[in-house]
Amino acid sequence: MQPLFIDLTSKKIVIAGGGRVAFRKAKTLEAERAHTTFVAPDFSDDIILLARQRGYKLIQREAQAADFKDALLSILATNDREANHALANSLDSGQLVCVVDEAGEGNVIFPAAVRRGPLQIAVTSNGASPKLTRKLKKQLDEQFDESWTGYSEFLGKCRDYIKKLSIPSSEKNEMLAELLDDRYRLSEDERERKWAYLQSLE
User: Fold this and answer.
1) What positions does the domain Siroheme synthase central occupy (predicted)?
2) Total-model pTM
């Protein structure tokens, strides 16, 4: 499988299922600002609350293939293996489909992810060893602590600014490379001094 990062803003996501797993997938996607619909005969209290908070749509009945029309991402998370299997077989082969209880029936796997501002690191074993995936995520959580949040935001701000400067490309690349010095990650004061210096170059 090829890892991809996909912008789901304002895109249609349909989740078949109303229980714990469906809720967990929705929480993972909560920050994406997508148009999310749940389809299930019953919904957990957590899903009902999330739908009220986020404006998600709830359709209370068994999911049907037509429910997933025009969905960029379909998540089959019912607690019925046969239902998930039947839905997976009924969807268009060009759709993005995650089958939570049998990854091989879909074409999307949710990786374990570490997010620090704009920085995202994702890891998966493609189902070979979920325990390994969880272990690696824990290690990444520890390695990339919260200092990376402000630092990655700083890098993005500086890059946008440096790109607009009227200087040779070689100088821009040197400036961008210099920002990778660890002192900028470890010190907010260093970041502020650097930002002030860059603004003085106009």
Assistant:
1) 116-142
2) 0.84
